[in-house]
Amino acid sequence: MKTETIGTANFETWTTEEVADAFAANKIVLIDVRTIPEYAFQHIEGALLLPMPFFDAHKLPGQSDKRIVLHCGSGVRSEKMARACIEAGIDRIAHMEGGFGAWKEAGKPYIGTSMSTGGPERVNA
Fold this sequence. Notes:
By secondary structure, the protein is α/β, with parallel strands linked by helices. The chain has a single domain, classed as Rhodanese-like domain (Oxidized Rhodanese, domain 1, 3-Layer(aba) Sandwich). Helices cover 27% and strands 29% of the residues. The chain has four helices and eight strands. The protein has helices at residues 16-24, 36-41, 76-87, 99-105; strands at residues 2-6, 9-14, 28-32, 48-49, 67-71, 92-96, 110-113, 120-123. It has a six-stranded mixed beta sheet. A two-stranded antiparallel sheet has the order 7-8. Strand 1 (2-6) and strand 2 (9-14) form a beta hairpin. It is globular, with a radius of gyration of 14 Å.
């Protein structure tokens, strides 16, 4: 994990491995900031969707029980939204380095769309 101090806040960049381990142990809330169609086509099972255009850092829950980790397709949008969280007064926030692309490249499981049925299917599960 890489940590950057911004004022009094800690901005963290987590690897896919760190996210996968913490998510499997129910230690984090994983928030996908991609678009609705991107999420519908393929997403990390159990990740919540909060698309970037609708993202309001002031509405995020506290992190007393679980940490918040943001992710997008490549890490660019999630980093932008994590920095917006810090500007909104959140003192500790994280995002996943490389985004969903890195997750897939690492062979982590996700929900995809079956090309034969058009329905959801588990990939790499």
